């Protein structure tokens, strides 16, 4: 995916946000790589990530809520695995989630999401004492729900600035690239025009126009071409029965696969395999 992040300017912006709010903020790309982050004096999370298990849990929590934010298309506020409050806000381009902004970690004054009890329960078993976790927990900023709402409003303004200042750039073929990847990843399933449009929140006309401009082809023919290309590869590199190959590349109707293969290549799959292997 051709996305460019101006890391230096992003980190300056996030640092300014942190200096004003005392809340840490980070930006991740859609492959869950941290692109930029604000400074933080919190020791709680540093201790949490001192071991591999803690790091793994942090990553799993982030990925889970990235996906939730992507599906809901809005900010998600939640309790992380360590008992702290965080939020994830997705950044969309042409209905595609290209980045995520994490705000946190903090304590909520109303204890809706976070409390000392939740933190202590999340640390069992641990090499540190309860006293140490509580001491570190109390160092984390405590804010009200009203302040959280205000911070998220400021964050949305920052996201608008990020776009206007071109701190995130991508090529104009991003949607086509995403759809192509989706097709290839789901080529063996019953993929359809409707399923593609639903996945990317676009109309059929938008999909048809984009495919004609980018590939000079129809969506249906593009998918068939990819399936036949996969079938040819399997015919030459495996001993699988032709019926199994047809199923593997997404053809539920074996006879239709044979007919289509003959139309596109001028021969049957069996003859194609024998001829190519002989040559």
What are the salient characteristics of this protein?
single chain; about 280 residues; alpha+beta; Beta-Lactamase; Arc Repressor Mutant, subunit A; 6-stranded mixed beta sheet; two-stranded antiparallel sheet; 13 helices; about 15% strand; elongated
Lay out the secondary structure:
Blueprint: E1 3-5, H1 7-21, E2 25-29, E3 34-37, H2 44-48, H3 52-72, E4 76-79, E5 85-93, E6 96-108, H4 116-122, H5 130-138, E7 142-143, H6 145-164, E8 168-170, H7 174-185, H8 193-200, H9 204-215, H10 219-237, H11 242-248, H12 254-265, H13 269-278
Helix pairs in contact: 1-6
Tell me what the structure shows.
- The protein is an alpha+beta fold and 279 residues long.
- The protein folds into 2 domains: 3-170, 2-Layer Sandwich (Beta-Lactamase), CATH 3.30.450.20; 174-278, Arc Repressor Mutant, subunit A.
- The chain contains 13 helices and 8 strands.
- Strands 2, 3, 4, 5, 6 and 7 form a 6-stranded mixed sheet that branches.
- A hairpin with a 2-residue loop joins β5 and β6.
- α1 runs antiparallel to α6 (145-164).
- The longest helix has 21 residues, at 52-72.
Overall shape: it is elongated
Spans of at least 5 consecutive residues whose pLDDT stays below 50 are none
Number of domains: 2
User: How many strands, which pairing sense, and closed or not: the largest β-sheet?
Assistant: 6 strands, mixed
How do the SSEs run, as a string of H and E? EHEEHHEEEHHEHEHHHHHHH
Name the structural class. Answer: alpha+beta
- CATH domain topology of the largest domain: Beta-Lactamase
State the CATH superfamily name of the largest domain. PAS domain
Quick check: average pLDDT? 87
The proportion of residues forming helix, as a percent range, comes to 55-70%
CATH architecture of the largest domain: 2-Layer Sandwich
Q: Count of helices? A: 13
Q: What proportion of the residues form beta strands (DSSP E)?
A: 15-25%
- The CATH class name of the largest domain reads Alpha Beta
Radius of gyration: 25 Å
- Termini, distance in Å? 38 Å
β-strand number: 8
């Amino acid at each position: 995916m051709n996305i460019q992040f101006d890391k230096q300017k992003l980190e300056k912006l996030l640092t300014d946000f942190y200096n004003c709010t005392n809340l840490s903020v980070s930006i991740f790309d859609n492959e869950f790589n941290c692109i930029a982050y604000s400074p933080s004096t919190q020791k709680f999370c540093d201790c949490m990530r001192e071991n591999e298990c803690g790091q793994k849990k942090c990553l799993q929590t982030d990925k889970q809520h990235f996906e939730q934010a992507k599906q809901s298309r809005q900010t998600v506020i939640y309790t992380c695995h360590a008992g702290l409050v965080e939020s994830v806000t997705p950044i969309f381009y042409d209905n595609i989630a290209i980045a995520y902004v994490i705000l946190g970690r903090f304590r909520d004054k109303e204890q809706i999401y976070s409390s000392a009890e939740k933190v202590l329960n999340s640390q069992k078993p641990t090499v540190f004492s309860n006293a140490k976790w509580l001491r570190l927990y109390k160092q984390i900023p405590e804010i009200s729900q009203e302040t959280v709402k205000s911070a998220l409003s400021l964050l949305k303004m920052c996201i608008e600035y990020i776009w206007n200042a071109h701190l995130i750039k991508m090529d104009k073929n991003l949607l086509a690239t995403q759809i192509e990847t989706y097709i290839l990843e789901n080529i063996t399933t019953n993929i359809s025009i409707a399923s593609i449009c639903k996945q990317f929140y676009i109309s059929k006309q938008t999909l048809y126009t984009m495919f004609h401009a980018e590939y000079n082809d129809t969506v249906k023919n593009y998918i068939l071409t990819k399936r036949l290309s996969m079938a040819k590869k399997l015919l030459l590199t495996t001993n699988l029965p032709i019926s199994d190959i047809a199923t593997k590349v997404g053809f539920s109707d074996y006879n239709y696969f044979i007919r289509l293969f003959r139309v596109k290549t001028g021969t049957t799959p069996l003859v194609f395999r024998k001829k190519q292997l002989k040559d």
